[in-house]
TrEMBL record:
This is Antibiotic biosynthesis monooxygenase. It comes from Nisaea acidiphila. The keyword Transport does not apply. Coiled coil: none annotated. Residues 2-96 form the ABM domain. Gene3D superfamilies: 3.30.70.100. GO terms for molecular function: monooxygenase activity. Keywords: Monooxygenase, Oxidoreductase.
Amino acid sequence: MYIAMNRFKVTKGSEADFETVWKTRDSQLDQVPGFVEFRLLKGPEAEDHTLYASHTLWKDYDAFVAWTKSEHFRKAHANAGNNKPLYQGHPQFEGFETVQKL
């Protein structure tokens, strides 16, 4: 399994709008071979932002990479730049290979 995460520092007061963007977007993920699961996670609050993470689970690293090169990826991210006012800086990507599963 491979886990791909993007962390977002969502500006205080923009949380509802940020969540709506994610809940209403056409992610195309359910059409992608190797996709297992998606979650949008809401984390701790700081003085000026709330931490969020998009979390996708893939069959393996190769399935994730294939998605990033696909037309599904391009369609899902076509309007991503329109939402930058909702969060601070660029999303921080983190990718993880599964070492142990219980």
